[in-house]
Amino acid sequence: MATISKETAKILTDTVTMVKLVGEANAKIQPQYKKMFEGLKKAIADASADDIELYQPQLAKVIQAIDKCQHSVQGALALLAQLRKDDALMETKFDQVKKLTEQMSGIRKQLVDEAAAARKIDADAGKADEAAKKDSQSAEADLDALKDEAAEIKKKVDVAKRDMPKLGDEARKANEKNDKKALTAARMKILDFQELDLPAKALRLKLEKYKKQYPDIDKGMKADLVWMYDNVQDAIDTADDADKLVKELLALKPPQKEEKAVNRAPFAKADVLKAAAVLGIEAKDEPKLAKLLNETPRFKWADALGKLGTQLKLKDHDGKAMLVKLNKLSFIQKGQLIDI
What is the pLDDT of residues 151-164, one digit of tens each? Predict the structure, then answer.
């Protein structure tokens, strides 16, 4: 039976954790979705502008949560796809991978259906709300409300632009020190900036709606619209920069521990000759064997012997088998005792 690598085992653990978090997030979404969806549906049927304005923003938040959860589902499915390519893992963990995949596929379908239904009723609510309060709406008042939203988004973008470079440096320094707590803290703060695109995209939809509703606004108001569109794009670009930075930081590897130098007397030439004879190594290649024996830590001999055997095209170039032969030599056995 094939052995599962440490890297694959870690991916499996991360996947199980992510699937659990997705399940918990979905469990929180469902009651909110039902409450806001049904409430908005009734508000539209009643043609109640007040009720529409009560439920529609809350449903929009649920849609954002669904989109975020869908993103996590895609991440989990990507990890599962990677695991399915590992034959050693699938030999022993097939049922577990199957169960995780089915769970994520089921949640994905549920969320896709709910997001589609929510967006449709949100569009219907927009039309109903427009019809219900059309006579009382004011282009200037609506524009002021949109400007307030844009200003709030800009504040958050300015903070992100100010803090992200600093947080990135803090994360890299923490990684160099192998300070996992500080590294995670920096990553989590940057993760918050990834969500800047959500309110920005929502505002962009409102701006499009505003343009259609008020096509004859003056130049000053049109200039305000241009400013808001610029802020929306800036927020989306900043969220994209945060996403790239998070991916870079997730790819950081902890610093490698320096191996202790081999501190022992070199093997005598006569001993190296014996070792070469046992391994079938020709006289011209004995210096390579001597370098390996004298400079390579013992726990790495098997790998090193395998590489040397392949390089020299030995009939028996299996590193572990070669090490077994060496371990039978008395001077090697003596060396092992000395190393201990």
Answer: 999 999 999 999 99
Helix ranges (H only) for the chain are 6-46, 49-84, 87-133, 139-176, 180-193, 197-213, 219-250, 269-279, 286-295, 301-311, 319-327, 330-339
Q: What is the DSSP string of 253-300?
A: -PPPPPPPPP-SPPPPHHHHHHHHHHHT--GGGHHHHHHHHHHS-GGG
**How many degrees, rounded to 5, is the angle at CA 61 between CA 60 and CA 66?**
95
Q: CA distances (Å), 200 to each of 61, 132, 151, 224, in order? A: 13, 26, 11, 16
Question: Which residue, among 220, 223, 8, 20, has the nearest Cα to 107 in the 3D structure?
Answer: 20
The CA–CA distances, whole Å, from 142 to 136, 160, 221, 305, 334 equal 11, 28, 11, 76, 88
CB atoms within 10 A of CB 103: 18
- Please tell me the distance from the alpha carbon of residue 38 to that of residue 331, in angstroms, as a whole number: 83
Taking 50 as the threshold, does the pLDDT of residue 339 lie above it?
no
Number of residues that make up the chain: 340
* pLDDT tens digits for range 278-337: 899 998 999 998 999 998 898 899 999 999 989 988 888 898 999 999 898 888 877 654
Residue 278, token pair as written in the block: 């046992």
CA distance 1 to 276: 34
Which two structure tokens, joined as six digits, stand for 165?
Answer: 């470079």
CA distance between the termini of the chain: 33
195/61 Cα distance (integer angstroms): 12
> At 135, is the pLDDT very low, low, confident or very high (cuts 50, 70, 90)?
very low
Cα–Cα distance, 255 to 175 (Å, whole number): 7
Q: Which residues of 199-216 are buried (b: 16+ CB within 10 A; e: fewer)?
A: bbebbbebbeebeeebee
CA pair distance 47, 51, nearest whole angstrom: 8
